[in-house]
Amino acid sequence: MDGWEDYYALLGVDPNSSDDEIKNAYLYKANILHPDKTSKLRENLRQKAEEGLKAINRAYEVLKDEQKRTAYYSEWLTRNKQSKKSSNASMGSKNKQAPRKKRKSKSTRLQKYDEYKGSLSNIRRRFPKSKIFIPAVLGIIILGFIVGLSIAFWPPDPATTAQDGDTVKVDYTGTLDDGTVFDSTINASFNHAEPLEFTIGAGNMIPGFEKGVIGMSVNETKNIHIPAKEAYGQKYFEVDLDELPEDTQVGETFFKTDDYGRTIEATVINISESIATLENTEPMAGENLNFEITLVELIKAE
Fold this sequence. Notes:
The protein is α+β, with helices and mostly antiparallel strands. The protein is built from 8 helices and 9 strands.
C-alpha cells in the first residue's frame, strides 16, 4: 500500500459534487466523529473515530481547494483506470477457462419445432371459436384497466376523508431510513396512552405528516416517506451574513424561520466573508422519516 486514499469515498461524495455538497458532507461526518460525541465509546472504537476524523480532515483539506482538487482528480482517474484494467484482465482469464455449452444439433431443433407446431394445431382444434374468444378476453382486460385507473385517480370525497381544518386521531409508528423505530402510539415502550389527536393545518405537526393524512378515510392505513426538509428541517444550512447582527460570532444561537413558516433554533458553526453556516439544534434535524399511519377517528370541521 502506498498510503493513497480515496477522498471522494471518505466524504461520501463524487467528482461532480458541488462545493456546498462537499462542505455539507464534511460537516455531517465531522459532527458524528467529534470527540464530544465519541468520548463514551470503548477505547478501540474511540481510536477508530479519531482516525476517521483525521482522514476526513485530510480529504476536506484537498477537496475544498480548487487547485488541489483538480490535481487530485487527475490522480484519482489514473488509479481508477488501472484498477479497471486489472479487473478486466482477471475476468478475461476466467472467461477463457469457462467451458462452452454444447449447441443442440439441427435435428433436435427441428424436432422441437415440429412439437411446437403440433401443440398449436391441438389448441386451434380445441378452440375453434378463438376468433371470438380472444377479442372478448382483450376487451375484459382493457375494461378492467380503465376501471382501475378511474378508481386510482378518482378524487376522494371531502365529506368522508380528512381535509384541512378537520380534527383527526391517528395511530402511527415512525422509523428512520435504517429501520430504527423512534416513536409509536401502538408500541407500549413509548408510553402513549391513546392515539395522537391534532387539527390539520393548525401548525402543530411537521408539514410532511399533515400532508400524508389529508385524503385518508377512517380505518385506512397508509405508509409515507417524509424527506428531512418536510420533517424537522435540514441539519446544516447557510445564510447571508447580512441577515445576522454585525458582531455575530461562532457559537451564537439564533431563531430562524424556515420555508414552512416554522421557527427553528440554530447555532453558528462557521463564518466566511459573506456566508454563515448554521446547525439546526433539533435532534431529529437532517433525518428522513417514515410513518405507518392509521386514521382512527375523523371529526369534520364545522
